[in-house]
Amino acid sequence: DSIVNAVYDIMQAAEDCTVPNLSEKSCSSDLTDMMSYWFQMSADLCAATLTCGSLDNECGASVSQSLVELSDCAKNLVAASSDCIKDPFICTYDVVTAVDEMNGFIGNVVSALGDCNVGAKTPRVGALYWQFSRQFNRRLS
């Protein structure tokens, strides 16, 4: 899902960020949205390696998720830049959402500090053996 949405945003940026139809706000929104989807895919892959393969990638997941929050914050500020001219309520919503995203960013950075400073961890041999034998047995049945 993240890949498809990121590619969609790339296609939109190709139109919004080029000269006959250049729209700086739409271009910025497309690019920040695209970055958010790529970072979300990275966080999902890091979490999948932990769940499916006993590889501790919580550090990568926390860092990637913090970048998701930062990209979403930027996207909301871009939206606020045009909404604040037209509608005070939507402007307030955009700004409060941006503050919420920034709080999420800070929370993920704090989480990453705990996840990334624990030293190297190698997966247990038994965990890997159990995972791969389960996959092998599933293919045989």
Task: Write up this protein.
There is one protein chain. The chain has 141 residues and is an all-alpha fold. The chain has helices at residues 2-16, 24-53, 58-86, 88-116, 125-140. The radius of gyration is 20 Å and the shape is flat. 26% of the residues are buried.
Write the layout of secondary structure elements.
Blueprint: H1 2-16, H2 24-53, H3 58-86, H4 88-116, H5 125-140
Helix pairs in contact: 1-2, 2-3, 3-4
Concise synopsis of the structure shown:
The chain has five helices and no strands. It is mostly helical and 141 residues long.
Jot down its keywords.
mainly alpha, 141 residues, 5 helices, 84% helix
Query: Into which percent range does the helicity of residues fall?
Result: over 70%
What coarse outline follows from CA principal-axis ratios? flat
The main sheet comes to: none
* SS-derived structural category: mainly alpha
Taken in chain order, the helices and strands follow as: HHHHH
- Quote the average pLDDT: 86
Beta-strand share of residues = under 5%
Which consecutive residue ranges, at least 5 long each, have pLDDT under 50?
Answer: none
Distance between the termini: 30 Å
What Rg, in angstroms, do the CA atoms define?
20 Å
Summed up, the helix count is 5
Q: How many strand segments? A: 0
